[in-house]
Amino acid sequence: MTAVMKRAGFTGSLQDLFVALRSDPKFKYPNTEAGRQLYLADARAAIAQTMAAAPRFFRRLPKAPLEVRAVETWRQETAAVAFYDQPAPDGSRPGIFYVNLADMTQVQKTQVEGIAHHEGAPGHHFQIARAQELTGVPKFRRFGYYGAYTEGWGLYSERLAKEMGAYRDPYSELGMLALQVWRACRLVLDTGMHAKRWSRDQAVAYFTQNAPLSARDVVKEVDRYINNPGQATSYMVGQQRISALRHKAETALGARFDIRDFHEVVLAHGALPLGVLAEQVDAWIGVA
Known about the structure:
There is one protein chain. By secondary structure, the protein is mainly alpha-helical. The protein has one domain (2-235). 59% of the residues lie in helices and 5% in strands. The chain has helices spanning 2-8, 14-23, 33-53, 112-119, 124-132, 139-143, 147-163, 170-194, 200-210, 215-227, 234-253, 259-267, 274-287, and strands at residues 66-70, 82-85, 95-99. Helix 1 (2-8) runs antiparallel to helix 8 and helix 3 (33-53) crosses helix 4. 38% of the residues are buried.
């Protein structure tokens, strides 16, 4: 991350960077309807870029379309920062990447691309919509959910997007890396609160010091971890396992490794427990 900070010309510490990302006007959209539309346009452009590159990284793409929408006013107060709604199995509704734009002063420009790639393409849409389109398997394979697999894929996709040509400047890449730091902080926070008896105030203070989230989002996130113990750790645990399996395949196969085939093995069976996913990858390595 420090190397990217140097490329961006940022000379302060990591904590200085987090403060700048939260407060510097150049990293903000106007808190107006025009600012909201600009965010949506940037997110759609980021997704269009990875969609264009996707055939070089995936054997099959989901048939369902993907849309980017702002969270409706009636649920802005309780909605997450961003989330994905899966398409209807009958094709009557597309996959939808929702983003909460209630208060644009809390939104960071540098995170737009990373969030779009996690929630949309090549993240949740490529995994969840693709799983729904599987044939010849039970419904629990098409619609099942394993947190470490699903969120691990989303987090893996943020970095994969870099390989696909995403992140138009060093600050966009820093935004993606800051999102990764956020998920790493969850490992500490969840353990601190549920195993070490940290108070809510301790968790908020640690989060504020070590991640770039806005004050609003820090509080929302901490309350989420309090109410759903362990869930927030699934992102980084899953990403680390998927990345480790990819490294194992690259090492074993050498020149025969094809990223499209690896992603096909990961996505072609629906959501899986990580142990079963490892068995699928090992079996593929054995015959590739």
